[in-house]
Amino acid sequence: MQSFHDEPVRGVIGNFGLLALPGIETVRSMVTGHAAMPPIHHLTGIRPTQADPGAVTWEMPVTDWMHDRYGVIWGGVYAFFSDAVVGTALLTGLPPGKVVTTSELTLSYLRLATPDAEKLIGHGQTVHLGHSLGLSEARIEDVHGRLLAFASTRCVVIDIPGGGAAEVIPPGAPISDPVDPYLRPLPDTLNVWHEHSKYSPREVFDKQWITGELDVGPVTRMTGHRAVEMGDGTYTIEWPASPWFSAGMPAMYGGAISWALDTAIEGAIFSTLESGEFNASIDLQVRFFRPPMLDGRTLTVRGEVQHRGHRLRVATAEMVDSDGNKVATATGSAMLIPEGVEHLMAGGAAHELTPD
User: Any idea what the Cα angle at residue 173 is, between residues 170 and 174, rounded to 5°?
Assistant: First the structure.
């Protein structure tokens, strides 16, 4: 399966001249377009639009490439987006030579995004910023002002000396052939509305990942991941340590790690469903241990269901690198919606399935 991660990466990794600037000027240089954007921008369109002391606003277009096989945009997309919002809210209060790295990220999912959302808008603000730790929060909305998710984080403040001798790298000439991945239209052959409702989770997995009879959905081209195992309550994926997942540093962006963990959690819960059932995500809590370097190797993420209630499922996930080192863990939960898939296949709105 081809994905965008098979293409040469776009954007700048290691724009170390930004380290010589106060944190707020670093964010503002991306807002104004004076600094080259990192690869995650070219992959998804994520970008800051405003930076004030202790507060930021970010946007990310809701594109067809973020849909799964049912046309649903899952919570992992919110997690990917939120990490930038909460992290840079703290960065605006730091002096030159200091950055933050995410220690813990928590999200409450309130509403599934629909095509008319157009874009995610994140408003982040600092709650506390000390010498070594920072707390911040963010509201994730759509263009209509509907609250989609709420996020909070604990970050560690670290020193990265040596940026003063480097110049800030400005944006290069845009590449238009082809345009950035998130701007491309879906191929006519990539249809997310397959008749999955008549298959069990096991049959869907086999037809998608073993025989190839069913397409895996647009989002898999965006992430480049591959599912390698599904048991009764377990789900394992391989996630690329791709440079496309850089937020400007040579290690993987925390939002991409969170997206991978959420994918494994949702897959594990999916494996426990009956045909036609739908699982609507409620929350995600991620703890980060070590950032994997973007060396092109494979990260393994395994999800496992820990609780199977009549309406509620709870699962955990763990990511390890190619050397077996633990990268991060997560816990997430979802509500079961009977006949939810049929609702989607009949043209019903995804947000109508969200528990409220």
Answer: 115
CA distance 31 to 41: 12
Q: Are strands 133-141 and 226-231 parallel, antiparallel or unpaired?
A: unpaired
pLDDT band (50, 70, 90) for residue 73? confident
Task: Write out the two tokens for 60.
Answer: 């990310």
Dihedral of CA 224/229/231/236: which sign? negative
Q: How far is CA 218 from CA 81, 117, 189, 193, 320, in A?
A: 18, 18, 11, 11, 25
Q: Which residues contact 108 (CB under 8 A, 6 or more apart)?
A: 149, 150, 151, 282, 283
Averaged confidence pLDDT in the chain: 91
Q: Which of 90-99, 127-136, 201-210, 323-332 has the lowest mean pLDDT?
A: 201-210
Annotate 124-139 with b (16+ C-beta within 10 A) or e (fewer).
bbbeebeeeebbbbbb
CA distance 281 to 94: 34
Q: Which domains does the chain have, with CATH numbers?
A: 7-163+191-353 (2.40.160.210)
The distance of Cα 311 from the centroid of its chain, to the nearest Å, equals: 26
C-alpha to C-alpha distances, 353 to 6, 31, 338, nearest whole angstrom: 35, 35, 10
List, as one string, the DSSP characters of 88-107. HHHHTT--TTEEEEEEEEEE
DSSP state of 40: H
